[in-house]
UniProtKB/TrEMBL annotation:
F-box domain location: 15-68
PANTHER family assigned: CYCLIN-LIKE F-BOX, F-BOX PROTEIN-LIKE
Organismal lineage: Eukaryota, Viridiplantae, Streptophyta, Embryophyta, Tracheophyta
Family annotation (SUPFAM superfamilies): F-box domain (SSF81383), RNI-like (SSF52047)
Protein name, UniProt field: Putative F-box domain, Leucine-rich repeat domain, L domain-like protein
Length: 262
């Protein structure tokens, strides 16, 4: 009877569901938390000490670095964190200005390309524009890309982003004549948003974007672009629409630009 009683007691013993959740569930929970909070889950229990290394999404805003000690190097913190993650990294967002080392960023993008990165944002608020790290062009699984304040020079080994669905460019400059080449190497692109682009754009640059559904071309009132966009023909807009049979949303905003219709 004692044996039976003991067996019955063990069957009704409380189970630790939190510590025994499947890895996919844990990763889903961690990815929904702000990065500092996700890392603090290491104090929940012994089993959760290294659960944060299962993160698949990393979002670094300036506020993330506010709580660092003054002697802690921001770039070194990011490098250490990346090396501890043990699974795929699907999303990486970085907005940082002070002490940005492009070589470090180059190493990070190479690491992310090996981790299957699909959603990448690299924001640089301070000027001048700096050359975008070349290893970014090896992230061939990218589906979403957002860049701000960069100078883009296409490497000769770049043959396109075959999976890219959305692209946002803010204050980005392409080397002469390379914007059209770049955009045609994104064959399945559906969303394109460009603001204060520092490269000349012609309607026929979009001719091969047959899948494009959303197009936004804007400049801000305080933009310091040297040469304003000039529309020389009333047919230019209709010509643009003719290139994009699947277009559902079009936004054009040029508050400081000259418009000459003939």
């Amino acid at each position: 009877m004692e044996l039976i009683h003991g067996t019955q007691a063990s069957n009704f013993a409380p189970q630790d569901f939190i510590s025994n959740m499947p890895d996919k569930v844990v990763t889903n929970i961690l990815d929904r938390l702000p990065l500092p909070h996700a890392m603090r889950t290491s104090v929940l229990s012994r089993k959760w000490r290294f659960k944060w290394t299962m993160l698949s999404q990393l979002v670094f805003y300036d506020s993330y670095f506010w709580n660092l000690r003054k002697d802690e190097n921001r770039l070194r913190v990011i490098s250490r964190l990346l090396l501890h993650l043990r699974g795929p990294i699907t999303k990486f967002v970085l907005y940082i200005d002070d002490g940005l080392n492009v070589e470090d960023l180059n190493h990070w993008t190479m690491f992310l390309s090996r981790k299957g990165i699909k959603d990448l944002t690299i924001g640089k608020r301070n000027k001048p524009l700096v050359k975008l790290p070349t290893h970014l062009f090896t992230c061939l699984e990218l589906k979403h890309l957002k860049l701000s304040n960069w100078c883009i020079q296409l490497p000769t080994t770049f043959h396109g982003f075959p999976n890219l669905l959305s692209l946002e460019l803010l204050q980005v400059n392409f080397e002469s004549g390379k914007f059209e080449e770049f955009i045609t190497l994104c064959p399945v692109l559906e969303i394109l948003k460009m603001s204060d682009l520092r490269s000349k754009v012609k309607p026929d640059d979009f001719a091969k974007l047959a899948n494009l559904k959303t197009l936004s071309l804007t400049t801000t009132p305080f933009s310091d672009i040297d040469e304003p966009i000039t529309i020389t023909s009333s047919n230019a807009i209709f010509e643009l629409l003719g290139f994009l049979p699947k277009l559902q949303e079009l936004q054009l905003s040029f508050p400081r630009c000259k418009v000459t219709l003939s």
